[in-house]
Amino acid sequence: MAACRKIKGGVCSAKGFRAAGVAAEVKYRGRNDVALIVADEPCAAAALFTTNKVAAAPVVYDRSVIRGGRIQAILANSGCANACTGEGGLADARLSALVTAGELGIDPHHVLVASTGVIGRRLPMDRLLAGMKLAKGALGRTAAHGLEATKAIMTTDTRPKQACVTTVVGGRKVTVGGMSKGSGMIEPNMATMLGFVTTDAAVSPRMLKRALQLAVGKSFNRLVVDGDESTNDSVFLLASGKAGNREVDKPGKDFDAFLEALEAVCVSLAKQMATDGEGATKFVTVTVKGAKSERDAERAARAVAKSPLAKTSWFGKDPNWGRVLAAVGYSGAEVSDMQAEVFYDREWAFRRGRIADERQLAKLAKVMKKDAFTVTVDLHLGKFESSIYTCDFSLDYVHINADYTT
Amino acid sequence: MAACRKIKGGVCSAKGFRAAGVAAEVKYRGRNDVALIVADEPCAAAALFTTNKVAAAPVVYDRSVIRGGRIQAILANSGCANACTGEGGLADARLSALVTAGELGIDPHHVLVASTGVIGRRLPMDRLLAGMKLAKGALGRTAAHGLEATKAIMTTDTRPKQACVTTVVGGRKVTVGGMSKGSGMIEPNMATMLGFVTTDAAVSPRMLKRALQLAVGKSFNRLVVDGDESTNDSVFLLASGKAGNREVDKPGKDFDAFLEALEAVCVSLAKQMATDGEGATKFVTVTVKGAKSERDAERAARAVAKSPLAKTSWFGKDPNWGRVLAAVGYSGAEVSDMQAEVFYDREWAFRRGRIADERQLAKLAKVMKKDAFTVTVDLHLGKFESSIYTCDFSLDYVHINADYTT
């Protein structure tokens, strides 16, 4: 089986895509805030959206557009989320897609839009559309173009997030590349999770949707920063088919190869997002194993990753297994403190009623100083396992989220 | 109907109870850490405990003891939670109840024990029992005795929490008084919620349990500090019957009068706990009304109260209704941002798609400066309402919970 290989790159790495990012003063001066991604031809496409019942206008608009299964362009902006903006906001989303299609000379039903930024403000349509035209003129196929587009959707992100992987599907080399943003889970001013992935593999819209669901389930859906969920979260996947493989239209070896590459890209983006979590000083993987059921493993890991007490203990470099175990205890998962074990990386902190002695604490202290570690809870009750990517809860998280004024 | 009247007092205010708090060096020197509450005779009693599956030894022990429905003494300590301590910890809990009963000359099945403090450490039995004997010698019926007992269960609490109410049940004046501790919801080092309430009303164990469930449902269960739940949370209610009323043994007017008083005490204690939440600078009541169902109102209010983004916005004095509405959106409750309204006290911030203008923002700024306010979300979808007591999320919360080292 062909190796899935990580390379440098992003949304322009797969054949058939151009991108641009420009400064249009949607909210701030002198920073990229409008991104445009354009495929040479209509692509098979899939999308997943926030489950938040307060869904932003672009999400509502895109949900209807994506039903067609073909997309050729994505217009995205930061600075304004176009959420809680009523019928007017929906009209803005629709109009920006229409004008973009007109400008590019493509089908208006082939344009997705995405916004991130302040909730409750209308889009500054004149500046957004001027930005879109500017971006059209700046479109290109280089890594630099992908990077400019990535920068245009950043908010509290301190680093642009890109990932790229090549693999072989049906005997042809294919590329999957993507970009994402997001560092708190929701944020009227800033965060939201947006992810755009492109590939030159030929995959049917149906299998593309399936691959995206599976990949998101192992990546973005395993990501917890603060447990809040945005009104704007969106992930798009476009497949140009330019790699020349026979279209993947059913499960099997080719689908698995494609899925592996897609997962690698999405997991990399998700990990970059956790690492860049608002105020984060540590990237933490929470793994619960030995659970009685898949659901137990999942909810236990999620409870630990969301627990403010566990998160602040990581910030404080404290191997506080008690907070970890207590979070598992209220997660709803089956757990017995007579049987459970808690590890930080490979060092145990609590073992079936036994707690770390001085020597063990010294080893744990070393783990806690690392920028990244894994907290593992082994419940010893079954064979199910689940992992969540998260970060610590720092003073800066509070600063970032308290200091902004509407 | 007789007025329910708040007075100064606590666990010694009702007739038939003595209390003491002493310093026994369970963990620290020079602070009260062992509390003893003793009734003159066995009392009708009820108790409610944490639902955390990792339940501390005293909780496991008390669950069996309370089945008898009669209690005469409570031994409580801070400094050590006696949680995750295995069979040995359970034996310690049992032994401390037995020795207390022997010392007091009462039935060993009439003693409840409660612990709060570090998880995973065994109780220092010699010091605990020496403290218990010291406390026995210090027992008394004055408000000062109740206060000393209250101080003995404090951990990160910055203030002792007591409440007392008098009312009339069956023509007799009855008193309900209580004490509690807790400022983060769980804490291996510190927090946990403990609440001890005494009354001189005569109430059957069955109706006492019912009253306690109802009162806790409107008070301690409506309290969110960080959303974490302790392994040790316990609430006890003892009724001495010394008020001389005919025993309340069924629903009706007398039960309602007693319940009203009990609720008032529990709500006061819960509010004191939210106000004293770890690092809290603001007491916030989150009210969701106009919900389609009771469950919707409840989960929407709870989601807002738990949202780190909403909580940090309160700390930042920011009327950030977007974060509030987004939390409602992911709570699972039905919500439409076209119909919802968000208020801070009586000032609106978001009204069915309309957002506050400069003049309204000035009014909101005044509310946000207050030490206590209510965030109200009116969903306009039904007639159900629910409130949660909580606090903001401050820099000090992170300090308090990060700076402790196991």
Question: Describe it for me?
Answer:
- 2 copies of one chain form a homodimer.
- Chain A is of the alpha+beta class.
- Chain A has 2 domains: 269 residues, L-amino peptidase D-ALA esterase/amidase (4-Layer Sandwich), CATH 3.60.70; 120 residues, Ubiquitin-like (UB roll) (Roll), CATH 3.10.20.
- Helices cover 34% and strands 28% of the residues of chain A.
- Chain A contains 11 helices and 16 strands.
- In chain A, the strands form 2 sheets. In chain A, strands 1, 2, 3, 4, 5, 6, 7, 8 and 10 form a 9-stranded mixed beta sheet that branches. In chain A, strands 9-16-11-15-12-13-14 form a 7-stranded mixed beta sheet.
- In chain A, helix 2 packs parallel to helix 3 and helix 5 packs across helix 6.
- The termini of chain A are far apart.
- About 1% of the residues of chain A have low confidence.
- Chains A and B meet through helix 8, helix 9 and helix 11 of A and helix 8, helix 9 and helix 11 of B.
The number of distinct structural domains of chain A comes to 2
Shape of chain A: globular
Distance between the termini of chain A: 53 Å
Classified by CATH, the class of the largest domain in chain A is Alpha Beta
- Helix and strand element order of chain A: EEEHEHEHHEEEHEEHEHHHEEEHEEH
Oligomer: homodimer
What fraction of the residues of chain A are assigned to beta strands by DSSP? 25-35%
Largest sheet of chain A: 9 strands, mixed
Corresponding CATH architecture of the largest domain in chain A: 4-Layer Sandwich
Rg of chain A (C-alpha, Å):
22 Å
Largest interface (CB < 8 Å): A-B, 68 and 68 residues
Count the beta strands of chain A: 16
- The total of helices of chain A stands at 11
Extract low-pLDDT stretches of chain A: 186-190
Structural class of the secondary structure composition of chain A? Answer: alpha+beta
What is the residue-averaged pLDDT of chain A? 92
Helical fraction of chain A: 25-40%
Q: What is the name of the CATH superfamily of the largest domain in chain A?
A: L-amino peptidase D-ALA esterase/amidase
CATH third-tier fold name of the largest domain in chain A: L-amino peptidase D-ALA esterase/amidase
